[in-house]
Amino acid sequence: MRLAAALFACCLASPALAQLPCGGDFADWVTATKAEAVANGIPQDTAAAFFADLSPDPRVLKADRSQGVFRKSFLEFSQSLISRDRLVRGRALADQWDAIFDKAEADYGVSRGILLAFWAFETDYGAVQGDFNTRRALVTLAHDCRRPDLFRPQVLAALEMYRLGEFDLDTTGAWAGEIGMVQMLPGDILARGVDGDGDGLITLKTSVPDALLSGAKMLQYHGWRAGEPWMQEVMLPETFDWSLTGLETELPAEQWAAMGVQIRNGVVQNGLPASILLPQGRKGPAFLVYPNFRTLFDWNKSFVYVTTAAYFGTRLMGAEPYLAGNPDPALSLDQMKALQTRLTALGHDVGAVDGILGAGTRVAVQKEQARLGLPADAWPTVELLNRL
Length: 388
Known about the structure:
single chain
């Protein structure tokens, strides 16, 4: 473990920091946070410089509350992110950085396909890394009361990086504080950053080897299993029991094959647990997903983002375009919110009523479909909304 990671872990163990309340006067909050950091070993002048001239960033709060892109269906989302140009550039970059991708697989077991997919989606292969001041973004989100427990440790991690000379006060990145080509938070950089180019520094904004190997190490940390697939497109018989689909049901891959599940490209991975994923119901694309797929939710919590990134990773490795099918129309934003409200009233935990078809809403939809005698494929329809 790097010394920085050890020091960061010590800072997180501070009960005083854990009890610091969110919200309230911003200047008072900054003063209290700075004082706690000093009490936990950060030099006074270092803390003073790091916390100087800060104010909340309204653009960050707006972005945090308006992630409407994740309301798109899988077909809409994937078609908006995946283009021929991105495929061609991805495959060219795979050749250009072949030795680094080989090292990522040898050292961390992570396939180049999935690393390329995240590199593409997070920053368009490094071209668009975000223009938000990272320090200001993290402090804004740590002070805000929506997710302070997530972002307060990241402020401390950025402060520790600054103390070590690995973080400039004018560092920019994504609105949520992620930095570099594969968009990693400061805490992950401290604990799992890799000096891939051997220059003695970990610079995820400018070094492709550093960025890719750090991303691979992070995926390994979250449970990525070497030598195993993450997703295969499948074709299902029309008589399939749709209630068995979804991430909640996991069976050996060969058992799915015995039920008539056919792998479209390749062969079934015997001995591996797998689930059937229908991102737009039984009339749309179908995928068999393996344990590695589940680790991707530790990179991004969005169901549609993770499914699209996983699919793009298979395309970069040579898979054919999916069979889009003809899914039932997606609900409008107002209809989805109405559905989530009714599901909540029935006792289901769908999280926020935000119009996003996330994992919790999918589970609730599938349960209600089964209860009402509808095909239980977890894809909400107008018929289901009306029945409820």
